[in-house]
Design brief:
Shape: elongated
Bound molecules: tryptophan
Largest sheet: 3 strands, parallel
Distance between the termini: 32 Å
Strand order of the largest sheet: 1-2-3
Number of strands: 5
Strand content: 5-15%
Radius of gyration: 22 Å
Mean pLDDT: 96
Number of helices: 13
Length: 332
């Protein structure tokens, strides 16, 4: 069985966009893979994080993805800082990766912005840590969004250069698993912008912790246009808000926009929004309730993460120890 590894930022309770874009894919992969899912708190501090918030957001994210169906018993879920092997292998990779490679990373340029001199050194070597995350487990399949493709290419360059420099075939080739999102979920206030946690308006997004009334209210107030729903997808052209709501409905119903429109086409948005709100509540209310239950008992939640970290370390420690031996370290 191929080993899956993926990482997710500890950004607190996810949005519907995170759920349909990534988390649902992670849940589905558990059916026929051995999965390791990591909350990447080491990556998070490459930009400033308030310490109390970081701990809270790490727990919120973990609780929420368990509530979404990540199974921490059959698979492995843990927080990155709890497994020392990540930082240990990342140091070796800092010495394998070339400055020229890192200078090409578009995510660094985007995140550092104009004030590049003031970015942390950690932000610069972020991709080396990401390579270490994956290769410490000899994981070969990595589900990520398209924006992470360049980082995975760099990880393969690092693996290859390590193997070449030390004359071994130790690190495997990583295969990116770019799963198209079930739906590209856009802001409820502006159908041309991605649904995002950083949007100033909470009305622009659905959080996986929102209760039924709040969900219904947000859907009712979502921006739309005056025309009724078209009866086929071609009619969504140039209507980003309509396209967004239909896409969300289709993703949640495991259906297609075409099928949704053949059922709801011709109706005004009032009726469609009622149907969408009901579907959202049915899908998300159990997730919100389970998340709340998990967060009410942090001792148990921390125990789940600690158990995941222990099982993760049991895989990563021997691999990283062997990498250290290949490099020529005498060993502890
Ligand atoms: N950089 C990834 C992101 O922002 C998160 C991540 C960290 C990751 N380590 C990883 C993803 C290892 C896949 C594999 O989305």
């Amino acid at each position: 069985m191929q080993r899956i590894f993926s990482g997710i930022q500890p950004s607190g309770i996810p949005t519907l966009g995170n759920y349909l874009g990534a988390i649902r894919n992670w849940v589905a992969l558990q059916r026929d893979h051995a999965c390791i899912y990591c909350v990447v708190d080491l990556h998070a501090i490459t930009v400033w994080q308030d310490p109390r918030q970081l701990a809270t957001q790490t727990r919120e994210l973990a609780a929420s993805i368990i509530a979404c169906g990540i199974d921490p018993q059959k698979h492995i879920l843990f927080h990155q800082s709890a497994v020392r092997a990540h930082a240990q292998l990342a140091w070796i990779f800092n010495c394998v990766a070339r400055l020229g490679w890192l200078n090409r990373m578009t995510q660094f340029k985007d995140k550092a912005g104009r004030d590049r001199e003031n970015a942390s050194a950690g932000l610069y070597v972020y991709p080396n840590l990401m390579a270490a995350d994956i290769l410490a487990y000899h994981a070969t399949r990595v589900p990520v969004g398209d924006d992470q493709r360049q980082h995975l290419e760099l990880a393969n360059d690092i693996a290859q250069k390590f193997n070449h420099d030390y004359g071994v075939a130790f690190f495997p080739t990583i295969e990116p698993l770019i799963l198209g999102p079930a739906a590209r979920v856009m802001s409820l206030r502006d159908g041309t912008k991605k649904m995002s946690k950083s949007d100033a308006s909470d009305q622009s997004r659905i959080n996986l912790s929102d209760g039924p009334d709040l969900i219904a209210q947000k859907v009712r107030r979502a921006k739309t246009d005056p025309a009724p729903l078209p009866s086929e997808p071609a009619g969504l052209e140039g209507r980003p808000e309509a396209r967004n709501l239909v896409g969300i409905y289709a993703a949640l119903a495991d259906s297609t926009p075409a099928d949704v429109l053949s059922e709801h086409g011709g109706k005004g948005f009032g009726a469609f929004k009622e149907a969408l709100a009901a579907l959202l509540v049915e899908s998300l209310a159990p997730i919100a309730a389970e998340t709340r239950r998990l967060l009410a008992d942090t001792a148990t939640l921390d125990g789940i993460l600690r158990d995941g970290a222990r099982r993760a370390a049991a895989i990563a420690d021997p691999i990283v120890a062997e990498a250290e031996r290949l490099v020529g370290f005498v060993g502890p």
